[in-house]
Design a protein that fits this description.
Chain lengths: 305, 260
C-alpha cells in the first residue's frame, strides 16, 4: 500500500498543503466580495470626510484638525469592523447556498486550505479598503493643512516671515498628518482582522448568517468591557459570589480584550506608542487571529456539510 | 459533533487562561504609556446619556468627545456657561490626552465665562460679580491642572497655566514656578525662561534670586536686552539697593516698554 503514492509520477502527486491553492481561494473570495459592491461604503466615507471638513470651518485650525482626525479614524474603524463582520459572516453560508463549497471540497482541497483561503480573502479586502480610506484621509487632511497655511500667510505682512509665523506653520504641520498616526491605522486593521477571525470561528458553529452577525456585534461590545471583568477576577474577588466569579471568569477567558487595540483615539490626540509596546500589542493581535482561526478549523474539520 | 464543539470551547478557555496574565500586563503597560486614561463610569453615563456611553464603551469615545465638543461650542454661542462646563467636563474625561480640549475648556471658563460674569448686568453688586469672576478663574485653573496631570509631557498646557496665573489670578509666584517647569519640557518655546524670571521678580521675597537670573539673561548678549528685561533689572536694582559700581547701566526708555 505504501508503495502506491511513490509509484505515481511527481506531476500528479497531491500536495497536502499548497500556497497556490490557498492563494486561488483567497483571490476568488476577494473578487466575490468586490463584486458584491462593498466598496460603495468608500463613497460614504468620502462624504463624511468632506462634509465634516466644511462643517468645521467655524472652529479654530487646531480644533478642526483634531475633530477631522477623530471623525476620519472613527469612521475608518467603524467601516473596517463592519466590513470584517458582515463579509466574514456570509462566507460559509453563501458558499453552502451556492453549492460552491461542495464543488471545492469535492476536489482534493483540504478544509484547512479552504478556510485559510477564505480568511485571507477577507483580510485582503480589509487591507484594500483601509488603504483606500487612509489615502482619502491623507488627501483631505493635506488639503485642509494647505488651506490653513495659505490663510495664515495671506494675513501676514508682505514679505514678512516672522519666527512666530514659522512656529504657527510648524504647529499646523504637527497637528495634521504625522507618522505617529500610522500605528493607529495598523491597530484599526488588526482589530478588524481579529473580529474577522472571531466571526469565522462563530460561523463554523452557527447555522445562520444573522446569528453570526448578532453574536459578533455583541462580542464586539463585550470585548470592550472585558478588562473590567478581568481586573475584577484578578484583583478584587473578595465578597463576590461564586456565580459572579464564574460568570466574570468566562467573560475574561472566552472574549478577547478589544480595548488593547483601541489605541487610535489616544494616538490621534498625540500619544506616541513605543516600538516595544507596538510589537507586544500587534503580536497579541496576531496570536488571537491565529488561535481563533485554528479553533474554527477544528470545528469546521468535522462539520457535516 | 457536539463533543467537538465542547472541546473547541475548552480550547478557547485554555487559551484565555494562558493569555490572561499577558493581557493584564499589557493593559498596565498601556496605561503607563498614557493610553486608556478615559473615565467611563456611572457618572459619565448620566452625563452623556445611554447611547453615547455605549458608543464610548465600544471604542468610539473620540467621536463622542468630538460631538460634545461641538455641542459645547453651540452652548458657548448661546452663552449657556453651565452647559459649556458640563460638556467640557465630559469631553475632557473622555479624551484626557487631547491637550486642545483642556486648553479650550480652561479658556472658556477663565477668559470668556469670567468676562461674562464681571459684565453681568443682572447682578448689581460688584462684590458678587467679582466673586463669580474669581470662581471662573479657578475653574480654568482646575482644568489646566488636571490637563497637566494627564499630559505631563506636553508643554502648551503649562504655558496656558502660566498665562492664567500671570494675567488673571495675578499669582506671580505660581506663574514663575509653572514657567520654570514649562522650560524643562522638550518643545517649550524660549520666551518661557524670560517669563519665569519676570514673574519671579514680582514674587515677594524672591527679588534677589530674580535679579541674579535677570543679570544672567542680560549677560547672554544683545538678543536678550529686551525692554521688559531692562525694565525689571532697573526696578530691582533700585529695590535691592544694588551699589552703583555693580549696577548695569540702563538708559531710560524713550518709549514705553513693549510686550516681549
Amino acid at each position: 500500500m505504501n508503495a502506491l503514492p511513490n509509484a505515481l509520477p511527481s506531476a500528479t502527486r497531491h500536495q497536502y498543503f499548497s500556497f497556490a491553492r490557498i492563494g486561488a481561494i483567497a483571490s476568488n473570495t476577494l473578487l466575490e466580495l468586490i463584486r458584491l459592491k462593498v466598496f460603495y461604503f468608500i463613497l460614504i466615507f468620502a462624504l463624511v470626510m468632506i462634509s465634516s471638513s466644511f462643517f468645521l470651518v467655524k472652529l479654530s485650525f487646531q480644533a478642526q484638525f483634531q475633530v477631522l482626525k477623530d471623525v476620519a479614524l472613527g469612521a475608518m474603524s467603524i467601516f473596517t469592523w463592519l466590513l470584517a463582520v458582515l463579509s466574514t459572516a456570509m462566507l460559509l453560508p453563501k458558499d453552502i447556498e451556492d453549492r460552491t463549497l461542495y464543488t471545492i471540497l469535492a476536489k482534493p482541497v483540504p478544509r484547512f486550505e479552504y478556510l485559510l483561503g477564505k480568511l485571507l480573502g477577507v483580510l485582503l479586502l480589509l487591507f484594500v479598503a483601509l488603504s483606500l480610506m487612509s489615502v482619502l484621509f491623507v488627501v483631505v487632511l493635506y488639503a485642509k493643512q494647505q488651506s490653513a497655511i495659505a490663510e495664515l500667510t495671506a494675513h501676514a505682512a508682505p514679505g514678512a516671515m516672522s519666527a512666530q509665523m514659522s512656529a504657527q506653520i510648524q504647529d499646523i504641520l504637527s497637528q495634521t498628518f504625522t507618522w505617529n498616526l500610522v500605528p493607529g491605522i495598523i491597530f484599526i486593521y488588526l482589530k478588524a482582522a481579529l473580529c474577522a477571525s472571531l466571526t469565522l470561528l462563530l460561523s463554523t458553529f452557527a447555522s445562520s448568517t444573522i446569528f453570526t452577525i448578532m453574536v459578533s456585534v455583541v462580542l464586539y461590545i463585550i470585548g470592550h468591557v472585558q478588562p473590567i471583568a478581568r481586573d475584577y477576577i484578578m484583583h478584587n474577588t473578595q465578597g463576590a459570589s461564586p456565580a459572579m466569579i464564574i460568570y466574570l471568569s468566562l467573560i475574561s477567558l472566552l472574549i478577547p480584550d478589544l480595548t488593547a487595540f483601541s489605541l487610535v483615539d489616544d494616538i490621534a490626540a498625540g500619544t506616541a506608542i513605543s516600538t516595544i509596546l507596538f510589537v507586544k500589542t500587534a503580536g497579541m493581535g496576531a496570536v488571537y487571529i491565529v488561535v481563533y482561526f485554528l479553533v474554527g478549523y477544528f470545528v469546521f474539520w468535522a462539520k457535516e456539510l | 459533533m457536539n463533543r467537538r464543539r465542547i472541546i473547541a470551547v475548552l480550547m478557547l478557555l485554555a487559551f484565555g487562561a494562558a493569555r490572561l496574565p499577558f493581557e493584564q500586563k499589557l493593559a498596565v503597560d498601556l496605561r503607563a504609556a498614557h493610553f486608556h486614561g478615559a473615565r467611563l463610569d456611572l457618572d459619565m453615563r448620566e452625563q452623556i446619556g445611554q447611547m453615547a456611553f455605549l458608543a464610548a464603551l465600544s471604542g468610539f469615545r473620540a467621536l463622542v468627545a468630538d460631538g460634545l465638543f461641538l455641542h459645547a461650542y453651540t452652548a458657548w454661542e448661546n452663552v449657556e456657561w453651565g452647559r459649556v462646563k458640563l460638556d467640557y467636563d465630559a469631553v475632557t474625561a473622555l479624551q484626557p490626552r487631547c491637550e486642545l480640549f483642556w486648553q479650550t475648556a480652561a479658556w472658556q471658563m477663565a477668559y470668556n465665562a469670567s468676562a461674562a460674569a464681571i459684565n453681568d448686568r443682572k447682578q448689581p453688586r460688584e462684590a458678587l460679580r467679582l466673586k463669580a469672576q474669581r470662581e471662573y478663574f479657578k475653574l480654568g485653573e482646575d482644568y489646566l491642572l488636571r490637563g497637566i496631570a494627564n499630559n505631563p509631557e506636553k508643554p502648551t498646557i503649562y504655558n496656558d497655566l502660566g498665562m492664567l496665573y500671570r494675567e488673571k489670578l495675578q499669582d506671580h509666584c505660581k506663574a514663575a514656578e509653572i514657567y520654570r517647569r514649562y522650560m524643562k519640557i522638550p518643545g517649550a518655546l524660549t520666551y518661557g525662561e524670560r517669563f519665569s524670571v519676570y514673574e519671579l521678580a514680582q514674587c515677594p521675597g524672591h527679588e534677589r534670586e530674580a535679579y541674579e537670573k535677570l543679570v544672567e539673561l542680560y549677560n547672554r548678549g544683545e538678543n536678550e536686552h529686551l525692554p521688559t528685561l531692562l525694565k525689571w533689572i532697573s526696578t530691582l536694582q533700585d529695590k535691592l539697593n544694588i551699589p552703583a559700581d555693580k549696577r548695569i547701566n540702563i538708559p531710560p526708555p524713550s518709549v514705553p516698554p513693549a510686550k516681549p
